[in-house]
Specification:
The chain is an alpha/beta fold. It has three domains: about 1-105, Rossmann fold; about 145-215, Signal transduction histidine kinase, dimerisation/phosphotransfer (DHp) domain (Helix Hairpins, Orthogonal Bundle), CATH 1.10.287; about 220-380, 2-Layer Sandwich (Heat Shock Protein 90), CATH 3.30.565.10. The protein is built from eleven helices and twelve strands. It has helices at about 10-20, 30-40, 60-65, 85-95, 105-180, 180-215, 225-240, 260-275, 310, 335-345, 370-380, and strands at about 1-5, 25-30, 45-50, 75-80, 100, 220-225, 245-250, 255-260, 285-290, 295-300, 350-355, 360-365. Strands 2-1-3-4-5 form a five-stranded parallel β-sheet, sandwiched between helices. A five-stranded mixed β-sheet has the order 7-9-10-12-11. Strands 6-8 form a two-stranded antiparallel ribbon. A hairpin with a 3-residue loop joins strand 11 (about 350-355) and strand 12. Its EC number is 2.7.13.3. It comes from Pedobacter rhodius. GO terms for molecular function: ATP binding.
């Protein structure tokens, strides 16, 4: 938009009509003070500024405008019928003007100049957009690199811990065998097996991440009973965590279409986190129901909870809640893998949580193949 500033109404009207006839959007101001008010409220590509005005002349207006960050890319053309001497023209450029035209104005020349300034403005705007995107990309890459380095450090520690434990238990096992202490030997063997299982889970997660990144995470989609899948997950987690009471709320006999093993992986991850992040408690609820052709499954704990400002990041790759990163072990990839599994089922995943009251992680997926295919199509259209 162009702002014309002139204290003479006839000059405003005539120039406004000419510019509007050439499809330029035009605004006007009858004084310097009024012009400054408008510059603070609106964005202008160009200001055509009369020099000789009462109270506040064009030079003063230009100097004030040049101090506004909002108008840093706005060009100024001075128009003057009286101040045509070289010293006034020089002052015009010193005041922040990009051009100084004396009256009478050759309208064709003025239009060419205006079009040139518009072109320069548009080029600068595009360059600024490119610069902002480049800076965003650089910052994103820096953060990604930092996360990767942090992940490698954490992964090294997480993998080393069970390996060190296994090594220790094998040494103790050897001593027990030498002493012919079968009970103690079995105890050490059981503990070594637990550590090996932890190591196996870490490796499986790392392999899943690699497959997700390369697009090679495979799914075996077929009809299965969701209730049985949830029962199996609860039974498995109950056996390994007998101190917790894992209660299933709800039941469904309907068959759903999906990858039973992958969805069970999500449920186990939810329950495992519920137990892990709820020290001092012993209750976990698993909620299941089907409504409007969709399976809703949630796992609720009564633990430490998650701050609201961090909940939207919880499913990001490598993300770990800051307050808990040193308190609890983990790679920060389990929930990311869960998120990818649910997306591949055309569903949504989320969390409701309050600090010190607990968290409820949930997912919703369509139960029929046709519904899931429609959801997949929408996802691909948004990519």
């Amino acid at each position: 938009m162009i702002l014309i500033v002139d204290d003479r109404p006839e000059n405003l009207v005539s120039l406004q009509k000419v510019l509007q006839a050439h499809n330029f959007e035009v605004d006007t101001a009858p004084s310097g003070e009024e012009a400054l008010k408008k510059v603070l409220k609106n964005n202008y590509v160009l200001i055509i500024l009369d020099v000789q005005m009462p109270d506040m002349d064009g030079f003063e207006v230009a100097e004030a405008v040049s101090g506004f960050s909002k108008a840093k890319d706005t060009a100024i053309i001075f128009l003057s019928a009286v101040n045509t001497e070289l010293r006034f023209i020089t002052k015009g450029y010193e005041s922040g003007g990009l051009d100084y035209i004396t009256k009478p104005v050759d309208i064709n020349i003025l239009l060419l100049k205006i079009k040139t300034f518009y072109r320069i403005y548009e080029q600068n705007r595009k360059l600024n957009e490119i610069q902002e995107k480049l800076l965003e990309e650089i910052e994103f890459r820096k953060q990604a690199e930092h996360k990767k380095d942090e992940f490698i450090s954490i992964a090294s520690h997480e993998l080393k811990t069970p390996l060190t434990s296994v090594k220790g238990y094998i040494q103790l096992l050897q001593r027990s065998i030498n002493k012919d202490d079968k009970v103690m030997a079995q105890n050490h063997l059981d503990k070594a097996s637990i550590q090996l299982e932890k190591l196996n889970e870490l490796i499986v997660d790392l392999l899943d991440i690699s497959k997700i990144e390369s697009g090679k995470l495979k799914f075996n989609m077929q009809q299965f009973c969701a209730d049985n899948m949830v029962n199996n997950a609860i039974e498995m987690m109950q056996q390994s965590n007998p101190e917790f009471n894992i209660t299933k709320l709800g039941k469904t006999n309907e068959m759903i279409y999906g990858d039973e093993m992958r969805l069970e992986q999500v449920v186990i991850n939810f329950i495992s986190n519920a137990i892990k992040y709820a020290p001092g408690t012993n209750q976990v609820n698993v909620i299941i129901n089907i409504k409007d052709g969709k399976l809703y499954l949630a796992v609720k704990d009564f633990g430490i909870g998650i701050p609201k400002e961090q909940q939207h990041k919880i499913f990001d790759k490598f993300y770990r809640v800051e307050e808990n990163s040193n308190r609890f072990n983990g790679l920060g990839i389990g929930l990311y893998i869960c998120s990818e599994i649910i997306k591949r089922h055309g569903g949504t995943i989320g969390v409701n949580s309050l600090p010190d009251e607990g968290s409820e992680f949930y997912f919703i997926i369509p139960i029929e193949e046709e519904t899931r295919l429609i959801a997949d199509k929408k996802i691909l259209e948004n990519v």
